[in-house]
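User: Second chain of the day. Same drill as before.
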Amino acid sequence: MAVVHLINSDEHTRCATGSLLAAAGYKVHTYAVAGDYLVMEPDNEVGCLLLSLHLPGVNGLKFQAALRRYPAYERPIIFLTANADVASTVQAMQAGARDFLTEPVDGETLLAAVRAAVEHDQRRRANQALCDFVRSSIAALSERERKVLDGIAQGRLNKQLAVELGVSERTIKADRSQVMHRLGVRSLAEMVKLLIEARCDRGGFS
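Assistant: Same format as last time:
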């Protein structure tokens, strides 16, 4: 079950919005101030933040910026506020907010925004898990195997790699086979696709 963390100083909004989200099947945690969200232990559940622009103490925009220092607490953010201006909207969206809703907002619009944010979080987590797997697999390779992987990612042929690394083509093929085994793929195309999907193909592996 996805979790929506609702941060809003208005009790009526917290109750009404929380009830709407709960009825739609979400687990809801509510907070009157931004700091309360950081007090609880971070969870590893898929979800999003439904954040008010105007909060006592640290406002929504400053809180959004501060969350970058606490990766365990980061979630896709939807701003929900009664008083918005163009500058705040632009700043929030440029900083990575998924949506910016102005109250009053109808239930379907709100739920659609939450659904999109949750789906984004699911994709982000899946990609992170994939990248973690790829990086741990690469870490288990020998130095030459990592160089072979780096060369393959750059489109080099076995013959070219053999010359560059001072080994035979047979050795390069054996290294490539070991790399593919570690990554759990059966073809060169599969391996390249995996590296691209995991976004772990930038900057080399050596």
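The chain has two domains: 3-126, 140-198.

User: Great, on to the next one.
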